TrEMBL record:
Its cofactor is [4Fe-4S] cluster. Binds 1 [4Fe-4S] cluster per subunit. PROSITE patterns: ACONITASE_1 (PS00450). [4Fe-4S] cluster binds at C299, C359, C362. This is 3-isopropylmalate dehydratase large subunit. Belongs to the aconitase/IPM isomerase family. LeuC type 2 subfamily. The gene is leuC. It catalyses: (2R,3S)-3-isopropylmalate = (2S)-2-isopropylmalate. Heterodimer of LeuC and LeuD. The lineage of its organism: Archaea, Methanobacteriati, Methanobacteriota, candidate division MSBL1. Keywords: 4Fe-4S, Amino-acid biosynthesis, Branched-chain amino acid biosynthesis, Iron, Iron-sulfur, Leucine biosynthesis, Lyase, Metal-binding.
Length: 418
């Protein structure tokens, strides 16, 4: 029986000829990331063991993105301590000046390559599967073990194959596709599985779009989400790193636990309704939902093509008076590109507030907190009760196009009607 991408990568990283779903292996880590919320816990755990030096300073990445710049004394103290830790351990890959969201920076700065095994102390680390890597989120204590030894135990996951043909229609975005998938699979339908997104339809989706899709694998319970690499993948990594790499593909007779098939041409704008990511409906079935806040950003949808799509919808229009429209570019580089291309001007002219690159509004601990009774339409990845502030607020998840159109009208709106 043939092998999946996950089985092949874990076999290579554990030094074995082959592994099967269900096997337990100890594998070598290529890169490890922790952010300003999770890294302090990792450092605390390291202090409780016989620890002197990290296994490889160049393979560790620290990113301040959740509370950057810090908004509390505790956050400021944590970040100061992490800077000290980085100096003591000779960790040069420290992004501590509002450079952007950790997952965007890992990809953008060349810390992830195809076929690598990458872990992050953040659940949305599965984003990096967009480059054909096995990437997964782990806890802060497990990350301490990685920092110390450079290895970690894994159970080889079963794999779900999502086959995609066709091409997404105008103003229907990869986020709409992955919301459709989440609604079909369910919040626990892919628990501890690898999700392989394959087929000619995936080849038509940009790396940024693939990042959005893989990012939300965890919202279906997946251990990792992976897109087989292609020319677009190689072009992306060659622009960012001169590190050597290999490409890993699934065998034609790979053993899949489940296979789902989609025609991208038939996908329409989708919305995840409160308070579950898998509570998904086509936008045509949502009805009239008034909003007080619209958020465009996060590790799911804060990239240049997302900002550009929103700007094209808003160009010449004005945000509804009842709406706060908050925009957070995923990185400083994206922010600069959007400035240079006039995208930021269009967003600001329409009434948007531009936030510093980072997680900002998404996780409810920095900017854009919701009051009780308020409703937000968001391009982020979670709509749990209390996620963005008051537990009496409601969050709807959608694509950047839907967020922008909704900001214009003051209610959840299909961008194709603008």
């Amino acid at each position: 029986m043939g092998k999946t991408i996950a089985e092949k990568i874990l076999a290579e990283k554990s030094g074995q000829d082959e592994v099967n779903a269900g096997d337990v292996v100890r594998a070598e880590i290529d890169s490890a990331m922790a952010n300003d919320l999770t890294a302090p816990l990792t450092v605390d755990a390291l202090e409780e063991i016989d620890f002197e030096k990290v296994w490889d300073p160049e393979s560790i990445v620290l990113v301040f993105d959740h509370q950057a710049p810090p908004t509390t004394i505790d956050a400021a103290e944590d970040q100061a301590d992490l800077r000290d830790f980085a100096r003591e351990q000779d960790i040069s890959n420290l992004y501590g000046h509002n450079e952007g969201v950790c997952h965007q920076l890992m990809m953008e700065e060349g810390h992830v390559m195809p076929s690598q095994l990458v872990v992050g102390a953040d659940s949305h680390t599965c984003t990096y599967g967009a480059l054909g890597a096995f990437s997964t989120g782990i806890g802060s204590t497990d990350m301490a073990a990685v920092f110390a030894e450079g290895e970690l135990w894994f159970r080889v996951p079963e794999t779900m194959n999502i086959k995609v043909k066709g091409e997404l229609s105008e103003l229907v975005m990869p986020k709409d596709f992955v919301l459709k998938t989440a609604g079909d699979v369910g919040a626990d339908g892919a628990t501890y599985m690898s999700m392989e997104f394959t087929g000619p339809g995936m080849e038509k989706i940009s790396v940024a779009g693939r990042m959005s899709i893989c990012n939300m694998g965890i919202e279906m319970g997946a251990k990792t989400a992976i897109v087989p690499p292609d020319d677009m993948t190689e072009e992306y990594v060659q622009d960012r790193s001169d590190e050597s790499y290999s490409l890993t593909y699934p065998d034609e007779d790979a053993d899949y636990k489940e296979v789902l098939s989609y025609d991208a041409d038939r996908i329409e704008p989708m919305v995840a309704c409160p308070h579950r990511v898998d509570n998904v409906s086509p936008i045509s079935e949502i009805g009239e939902v008034e909003i007080q806040q619209a958020f465009l950003g996060s590790c799911t949808n804060g990239r240049l093509e997302d900002l550009s799509t929103a700007a094209s919808i808003l160009d010449g229009g004005e945000i509804d008076d009842s709406v706060r429209f908050l925009v957070a570019p995923a990185s400083q580089k994206i922010y600069r590109e959007a400035l240079n291309e006039g995208i930021i001007d269009k967003l600001v002219d329409a009434g948007a507030t531009i936030q510093p690159p980072g997680c900002t509004t998404c996780w409810g601990g920095h900017l854009g907190i919701l009051a009780s009774g308020e409703t937000c339409v968001s391009s982020s990845n979670r709509n749990f009760k209390g996620r963005m502030g008051s537990p009496e607020a409601e969050i709807y998840l959608s694509s950047p196009a839907t967020v922008a159109a909704s900001a214009l009208t003051g209610k959840i709106t299909d961008a194709r009607k603008i």
